Amino acid sequence: MTTTVSWDVVHVEKPDDLNVVIGQAHFIKTVDDLHEALVGVSPALRFGVAFCEASGPRLVRRSGNDPELVELATRNAEAIGAGHHFVILLRDGYPLNVLNPVRAVPEVCGIFCATANPVDVVVAVTRRGRGIVGVIDGEPPLGVETDGDVADRRQLLRAIGYKL
């Protein structure tokens, strides 16, 4: 049997001050487990989560502690439209702080991106439905860092508390 594939590119809608995490998971309770993982990271973290089911009622499940971010995560998940994927939007926190708790959720199969950059999601479309193939995260490089750039990077990491 032969099938055809077409491609969609979905731009993730988000303000510049938000971070986004997009991944794949596989069970109806994913949205609740992701919520619980995120609230344990920091009391200051604001977030919205949306998860698309791939079977049964095939609903976009949603949760979070910030109604604006829940709505935006839901709109992005609907636009991507692939089964068993999730979109997390973060404010007042960084992906670095949530990736391990998100990965520790038993239903999470993988993470496509975790970034504050503009993101495009590459979606394959077949008769069966839609699936995320990958993401375009940010812009292409403009060059290779110099010794001065290395020193600046390390100084920034010290200034924000990630390096001694």
Topology, element by element:
Elements: E1 6-11, E2 19-25, H1 30-39, E3 46-52, E4 60-64, H2 67-80, E5 85-91, H3 95-103, E6 108-115, E7 119-125, E8 130-137, H4 147-159
Antiparallel strand pairs: 1-7, 2-5, 2-6, 3-4, 3-5, 7-8
3D architecture notes:
The chain has 164 residues and is of the alpha+beta class. Helices cover 28% and strands 34% of the residues. The chain contains 4 helices and 8 strands; from the N terminus they run ββαββαβαβββα. It has helices spanning 30-39, 67-80, 95-103, 147-159, and strands at 6-11, 19-25, 46-52, 60-64, 85-91, 108-115, 119-125, 130-137. The strands form 2 sheets. It has a 5-stranded antiparallel β-sheet with strand order 4-3-5-2-6, with helices on both faces. A 3-stranded antiparallel β-sheet has the order 1-7-8, with helices on one face. A hairpin with a 7-residue loop joins strand 3 and strand 4 (60-64). The longest helix is centred in the middle third of the chain and has 14 residues, at 67-80. The radius of gyration is 17 Å and the shape is globular. 30% of the residues are buried. The mean pLDDT is 95.
Question: Which features does this protein show?
Answer:
globular; five-stranded antiparallel β-sheet; alpha+beta; three-stranded antiparallel β-sheet; 164 residues; 4 helices
Name the beta content range.
25-35%
Query: Strand pairing plus helix content: what structural class?
Result: alpha+beta
Principal-axis shape equals globular
State the share of residues found in helices, binned by percent: 25-40%
Major sheet characteristics = 5 strands, antiparallel
pLDDT below 50 for ≥5 consecutive residues: which ranges?
none
- The succession of helices and strands, N to C, reads EEHEEHEHEEEH
Let me know the number of strands: 8
Count of runs of 4 or more consecutive helical residues = 4
Please compute the radius of gyration using only Cα atoms. 17 Å
Query: Strand order across the biggest sheet?
Result: 4-3-5-2-6
Distance between the termini: 59 Å
